Amino acid sequence: GRRRASADRPPTAVPAASRAGRNLPAAIGVGVALGALIVVPLFFFLPAFLAVLAAAVAIGIGEMARAVRRSGAHPPLVPLAAGGVLTVGLAWFAGPDALCLGLLVTVLGTMIWRLGDGPGNYQRDLTAATLIAVYVPFLAGFAALLAAAPDDGHLRVLVTLVAVVLSDTGGYAAGVAFGKHPMAPTISPKKSWEGFAGSVTAAAVGSAVLLWLLFDVAPWWGALFGTAISCAAVLGDLAESMIKRDLGVKDMSNLLPGHGGLMDRLDSILFAVPTAYLLLAVFVPVAG
Q1: CA distance 189 to 68
Q2: DSSP classification of residue 251
Q3: Per-residue pLDDT of the chain (288 residues; tens, 9 = 90+)
Q4: Among 43, 68, 85, 90, which lies 20 to 30 A Cα-Cα from 248?
């Protein structure tokens, strides 16, 4: 039976949920571990970063494929995962044209593989597979393009990740402290305009300092970089929230405590890396 609470045995306290909906200690621990998994190979053995990126793409594709099955679509996982790894590899070794080629090969390979299961629901399955191929490996391929830049590729990835982390941290802090006006209540009820302002401010200030120190870029251009990265990161977060809402799932998986699935952590980064690649190509052109 249930034991009564008394003066000697007070009732068990139930931990209050975070206003942002996270298990904050677990989220911080997992975030630090993921950051180390990226930064250590990035600075000490760059080819290992490609392995980490390829593994992340394969896991993300698997999470997306499982999630879209709730809608009745069954995209073939094998050609998607193989094509996704090939896509980031081509981007790493052969540049942006090869990235587009990898996407094309992935979609064509998926089309041919899916034909083996017959014509039933072919269009629905192929549409889902194409969405996954563009959303995960194609966008992630820009991280490979950033890292593959001669001499300073590791720094390009670093400033992008720092801008995303600052955006996420600033948005979380401002949202918890001041959040009153929902930004997109039907998509992500916990996001507020105050949190968005905190995201942009933190990313702009941090990027202005970091790009000036690492690339000798004028602070106002660094602030523009941070603002653009923050906007892209928030859009990526909202895009995945909309996908999850349409599919009726809270998280893509329970792989990462405090974060959900790997895609729940990559959503903002996937939109940020193409933005960073294009802006850094202007602000810090690659020699040769």
Answers
A1: 22
A2: S
A3: 444 444 444 444 444 444 445 566 766 777 788 888 888 999 999 999 999 999 999 999 999 999 999 888 999 999 999 999 999 999 999 999 999 999 999 999 999 999 988 888 899 999 999 999 999 999 999 999 999 999 899 999 999 999 999 999 999 899 888 888 888 888 888 889 999 999 999 999 999 999 999 999 999 999 999 999 999 999 999 999 898 888 888 878 777 776 678 888 888 999 999 999 999 999 998 754
A4: 85
Measured torsion, CA atoms of residues 37, 245, 141, 54, in degrees rounded to the nearest 10: 40
Torsional sign, CA 185, 188, 191, 196: negative
Residues forming a β-bridge with 182: 192
Report the candidate in 119, 135, 117 with the shortest Cα–Cα distance to residue 80.
135
Q: Where exactly are the structural domains of the chain?
A: 23-148, 152-288
Cα angle 89-141-146, degrees, rounded to a multiple of 5? 100
Distance of CA 247 to the CA centre of its chain: 18
What pTM was estimated for this model as a whole?
0.86
Task: List, in sequence order, every beta strand (DSSP E) within the chain.
Answer: 182-184, 188-192
Distances (CA, A) of 131 to 113, 162, 271: 16, 27, 14
Tokens standing for residue 43: 């600075």
User: Do residues 245 and 187 make contact, with C-beta atoms less than 8 angstroms apart?
Assistant: yes
Helices (H), 95-152: 96-115, 122-133, 139-147
- At residue 249, φ and ψ (nearest 5 deg) are -120, 150
